[in-house]
Amino acid sequence: MLNSRKDSTFVCWVICVLLVATSTTSTASAADSHISDIVFSPDGKQLIASSNEGLAIYRWPDLSLIKRISTESPHPTCLRFSPTQSYLAVGGGIPSESGKIEIFNWPTLTKTKTIMAHSDQIMSLAWRDNNTVITASLDHDIRVIDLQNGESKQLLQGHSRGVIDLCLINNRSTLVSGSLDQSIRVWDTNSGALQRTSSNHTHPVQAVAVAPSMDGLPLMASASDDRTIRIWQPTIGRLVRFIRLETTPLDIDWIDSKTIAASCKDGKVHLIDTLELEVLATHEAINGWAFCIACHPTLDGIAVAGERGQIKRITLDSETTNRE
Amino acid sequence: MADLPGHTTEFQNVTMRNLLSNSKVLKLATLCLLLSSATAIAQRDIEFHNDIVPLFTRFGCNAGACHGAAVGRGDFKLSLFGSDPDSDYDSVVRHLRGRRINIATPEESLLLLKPTEQVAHGGGTRFDIDSDPVSLIAEWIRNGALHTTSRQFTGILVTPTTYHAKTVGDTTAVKVTATYSDGSKRDVTSSTVLIAEDNTGVEIHHESATIEAKRRGRHIVIARYLTEVHPIEVIVPLTDARLRRSKSISSNFIDEQIQSRLKQLRLQASPQISDELYLRRATLDLTGRLPTAESLSQFVADDATDKRALLIQSLLESDGYVEYWTFKLAKLLRLRTQQHDQEGASVYNEWISEQLRNDAGYDEISRSLLVAEGDAHSNGPANFWRTTRTARDQAELASEIFMGSRLRCANCHNHPLDRWTQDDYHGLAAIFAKVEQGVIVQTKPNGRVIHPKYLEPAQPKVPGAQFVDDSDSNARMQFAQWLTDPNNPYFSKAIVNRIWKQLMGKGLVEPVDDFRSTNPATHPVLLDLLAKDFVDSGFSIKHTITRITESAAYARSADAIEANKFDDKYYSHAIKMPLEAEVLADAIADVTGIHEQYGEQPVGTRAISLLDPAVPSRTLQVLGRCDRSDSCESTADAIDGLSQKLHQFNGAMINDRISAPNSRLTQYILAGKPALEIIEAFYQVGLSRSMNDIERSYWKKLTVDLDTKVDTEHFLEDFVWSLLSSKEFGTKH
Asked: Is A138 on the interface with B (CB under 8 A)?
C-alpha cells in the first residue's frame, strides 16, 4: 500500500537481500484503535500512523510518540506524501456516508485543505502530481481530484465493489486499482479510460504495490484474500507468477526489486522472494491482523501495524546488498 | 502543489450525506447519554460470542436474506445465524481495517449507525436508538471490542418441548436456558428467536416469548439461540369428538404408536379395508403391478385367517417384488446409463436385483456400494461411483441416500437448521475425493477437495464424528463402518422411513431426505422402534415391509370419515397416492393388453424394468417419470399434473390402445363375451374388485339398450376409457 519513496531512489537497484536473520526490535502501542495505515516521513526519521484517533507521529526507529494530530475523518484510512514531499494527504471519511481527503503541510502538519470526494470511505489514494490526487473508495469509484479547486476531474467507474488500493506506474500515467470485486483494473490517468481488467484473483484484492523501477516493463504485485501474491506486468496484462501463502496477506510493500514484505491476518510478516517464489523469512509482528506495512526509505527496517494500536519495527539483517 | 488555500471545498457533482442533520445530532446525543448510563451492563464482561452474536440472530442481521447470505450483503458478511462467531468477529471488528467499529467513539461505529438507521440501511431499522441492544453493543466496543470468551457455550434447554393445548387460543410461555462449559446457566429467552413453521398454526408473541395455538393440529416452533436449534411441538386436538374405543386388530407396535398419536389429536381411525382392496394395495406396493383377475378371485375365496400375511409372504418371494423394488432402489441410487454405457447400468441393476432376491442386509448393500472398486462393467456396485461427477456431488448423494440428510446445505456455511458443519461436508467430500470415478473405479491417493473457508485441502472427516487421517486409504471403509453401525443415528431411520413412505404414502419424516432436529418425525418413537426392529432383523428390507403391512394402520381405508377428514399425516386413514409414472404405464398396458415399445427394448418390457430412465417414451414423459439425474422424491406433482390428465383423456396413450386389434377389449368382443361380463372383467383387472350392486344395476341398465354390435363396441370403448381415466384406477388407495 505504501510507496512513498521516490521511484528514482530505486532506479538501477539490484538488491539481493538474504533475510535469514532479521529480528524485531521495538514495539509501540498507540491506543486501542486499529491502525489503518502507516507511512514514513520523507527523511525516514518519523513514522505517521492513522487510526480512529487521528494521526500519531512516532520517532523512528524507537517508535516513541512525538505527537498526535486530529483529523476530521473519524476513520482516516490511508496516508500518502506528495511527490515534492511537502504535503501529506490523508484519505478516509465516514463509513457509508462520505469519503474525505485532508491535506496537511509537512512537516508542520497544519491542515491546508479538506475535500469531500466520495459517498463512502476512501481506502487508498495516490498523487499523480503535486496538484492532483487519485482516490479509491468503497463507493466503487475512483476519482481524479484537482486540489486547486477541489473538483473531480475524472470519474473512473468499472469496479462493481469497493476499491481498496491504488498504485501508479509508467511515470504516473497509468493507474492500477485493486477491488473487493476480485479484479485488478488498469487505467489511463490522462484520459480516464479503462485499459484492461485482470480477474485472476478468486477473492477480494487487498493491496497493490508497484515494484521499484527497473529496466523493462513495469512490474507490480497484488495481494488477495485468496492468499496469493501475484506479480504482474500490468501494461500488457500479463500475470508473471504467483505464490500462495499459508495465511492471508493484508498489505504488501517492495523491499527491493525482487523482494516483497507482506503483513498478514495472522499478525506475521512474510518476506518473499518474487523470483524464486519462496518465503525467505517469517516474523511474528503483532497480535491480530497486521493491516499495514511500510519499508523504510533507506531500508532501516520495516514498520508493521494493525490491531489495537500495535506497531512494530522489524530489522532487516542483510548479508549481501549490491547496488549499481 | 502550487497553492492550497486553507479552506474546505465540496464537489458540486457528488451527492453527499456527510453533514449530520439536526435530527441526527440529536440522535447521537441521545446515544451518548445512553452509553454513559450503560454502566449497569458493564458490570459484567460483555462477550462477543455469548452476548453480541445472539443479537445478530435475534434481530435478523445474520439471516439468509440479510448479511447471513452466502456472499453477505453490502460487503458485510455474517455467518448464517451466527454459526461461525469467529468469522463474524473478523467481519465486525477487523474487515476493511476496522471500518465497522470506532473504539475511540463507539457511538459513531457503523455497527450501530446502520441498524439504528442513522445512516441509510437496506435492512431498515433493526434496533431503536435507545434500546438495550444498542447499549450493549456500544459498551462492548467501548470496552475494546474484545474477542475474549470466559466460558464456552454448550447448548440450550428449552421448555416446553411439547405443548398440548386444549383448544385454539391457548398459550404457553417458552423458556430458554443456555448452558456453558463452566457449568453455569443463563436465561437467554429474550435473545432466542422463535419461528413458527406455519404462521397460520401458531402465533409467536415475541415480547413475552409465548406461543399461541391458532389452528388445530400439530405444529412445530423452532427455538434458535446461537448455533442451537430446538423444535417445540404444539399439539391441538383436531376435533372435540369423544373417541370411540375401537377394537384392536393388531398388537403391532406400529399400531400402538399410531393409535397413541390419534388419541392425542382426538382422531377416529377409518375402518379396515376389504380383502379386495388389501390385495390391490399390497400387490401394487410390493410388485408395482395390479393383481390379476385370477389372484383376486383366489384371494377373496380363501377362508384362511392369516391369508393377508401369507399374501405378503408370497409377494415378497415373487419375481415381481424383486423387479419392482429393484426399480425403487435404482431410483433411490439414481441408477441410469452413463454416457450411453448400457453395460455398466445393466450390471449394476442386476446386482441390486440379486441383493433383493437374497434379502441381503441393507447394511451390507450399502457397505458394498461405498467401498466398491474395480471395473464397473463387471462389478455392479462400482457404478455407484459413476452416479455423480465430483466428490462433493457424491458426498451430497451419499448423505441424502444413506443418512436422509441434506449435507449439501453445509457447503457454503454450517447448516442453519442442523448440526452439519462445513467441515462435515467437505470432510466427507475429501473421503470421496480419493476415489477415481470412471469405468474403472479405483483409489486416487492424491485426490482432494479444497475447503472454501480455509482455502486448504479439506481434511477427511466422518460427518458429525471423527476426522480421518488424510493418508488413510481406507477412509471410505471407516465411513461405511460408521454409517452401518447398528447405533448409527441416521442410517436405519433413513431407510425405514423410505419404506414407510412407500407403503403408507407419507414418510414419518417428510421430506424423506431432510432429517434434522428441526424437522421432527410425526411419530418419533415409532420411527425409533422401526429402526431398532430393522437393525434387529439384520437390516432386512423384507422384514420391515412385513412388519408394516401386517399393521392395522396399513390396512386402513383411504376414505376419510367425518371424524378424521382433516387428517393428512397421522394415518387415521390411508393416503390416496397417484401411481408412479412407470407403474401407471405398466397398469395401462396390462389392462388394455397393449404394451408400449420402449426404445429398442423388446415389446412387453415393463416400464419399471427400463435401465435407462431417459429412453424415449411419450407416455412416460407425460406421466412425469423421474430421469434420476436428481432426487426423485418430488415427482408427485408431475404425476398428478394437468398435462398428464389431458394426455390421458384425449391422447393416444389410452384411446389408441383400447380399440387396437389385439387389445383386451377387442379379444373379449371377438370371443363373444356379453357386455356386462366384459365390464365385470375390466373391473377386476383394472380396479381389482367386482362391481357392487349399484354399479352392476347401472351398467346393466345401460347395456340392455344397446341395439347394434357397433353401438356395443363403442359403448365398451367408452367404458374402458372412463375406467382408465378414473381416479380409482390411477391411485393406490
From this structure: yes
Q: CATH 2.60.40: does it fit domain B153-236?
A: yes
Q: Could you write out the DSSP letters of every residue in B388-455?
A: SSSHHHHHHHHHHHHH---GGGGTTSS-TTSS--HHHHHHHHHHHTTEE-SSEEEE-TT---EETTTT
Burial label, A102 (beta-carbon count in 10 A; 0-12, 13-18, 19+): buried
Alpha-helical (H) ranges within B209-360 are: 253-264, 275-287, 293-301, 307-316, 319-332, 342-357
Is the bond preceding B160 in cis, omega lying within 30 degrees of 0? yes
Fill in the DSSP letter of residue B93: I
- Residue A226 in contact with partner chain B when CB distance is under 8 A: yes
Cα A78 → chain centroid = 8
ipTM, 2 decimals? 0.90
- Say if the Cβ atoms of B97 and A130 lie within 8 Å: no
- Assign A195 to helix, strand or coil: strand
* Highest mean pLDDT out of A102-106, B32-36, B188-192, B408-412: A102-106
Which amino acid is located at B53 in the chain? V
Contact list in A for residue B96 (CB cut-off 8 A) is 121, 123, 138, 162, 164
Q: Give the number of other Cβ atoms within 10 Å of residue B540's Cβ.
A: 18
Give the integer Cα–Cα distance in Å for B594 and B180.
Answer: 69
Interior angle at CA B546, CA B545 and CA B552, nearest 5? 100
Please tell me if residue A321 touches chain B, with a CB cutoff of 8 Å: no
CATH numbers and ranges of domains, chain A: 11-315 (2.130.10.10)
φ/ψ region of B131 (left if φ > 0, alpha if ψ in -120 to 50, else beta) reads: beta
CB contact under 8 A, A34 and B98: yes
| Residue B632 C-alpha from the chain's centroid | 11
Residue A196's SS3 state is strand
- Give whole-number Cα distances, A189 to A102, A195, A238, B26, B718, in Å: 22, 10, 20, 43, 82
The domain spans of chain B are 22-142, 153-236, 341-484, 578-732
In angstroms, what separates the C-alpha of B111 from chain A's closest C-alpha?
Answer: 10
Pick from A115, A307, A308: CB nearest B9: A115
The H or E element spanning position B57 is helix B53-58
| Alpha carbon of A106: minimum distance to chain B alpha carbons (Å) | 12
**The residue type at A85:** Q
* CA separation for the pair B422, B411 (Å, rounded): 6
The size of chain B, in residues, is 733
Ramachandran assignment for B530, one of left (phi > 0), alpha (psi -120 to 50 degrees), beta (any other): alpha
pLDDT digits (tens, 9 = 90+) for B396-449: 999 999 999 999 888 887 777 777 889 999 999 999 999 998 899 999 988 999
pLDDT in tens, A153-171: 999 999 999 999 999 998 8
Q: Name the residue of chain A whose CA is nearest to B117's CA.
A: A96
For residues B171 and B205, the answer to whether their CB atoms sit within 8 Å is yes
A30 within 8 A of A53, measured Cβ to Cβ: yes
User: How many angstroms separate the CA atoms of B259 and B267, rounded?
Assistant: 9
Q: Which of A32, A68, A139 to mutate to test the interface with B (most CBs of B within 10 A)?
A: A32
Task: Please choose, from the candidates A109, A48, A113, the residue with its C-alpha nearest in 3D space to the C-alpha of residue A80.
Answer: A48
Question: Coil, strand or helix: which one is B162?
Answer: strand
The CA radius of gyration of chain A, in Å to the nearest whole number, is: 18
Place of cell 459484567: B44
Query: Which one-letter amino acid corresponds to residue B691?
Result: M
Q: Are strands A111-118 and A98-105 parallel, antiparallel or unpaired?
A: antiparallel
Tracing cell 496484462 back to the chain, one arrives at A237
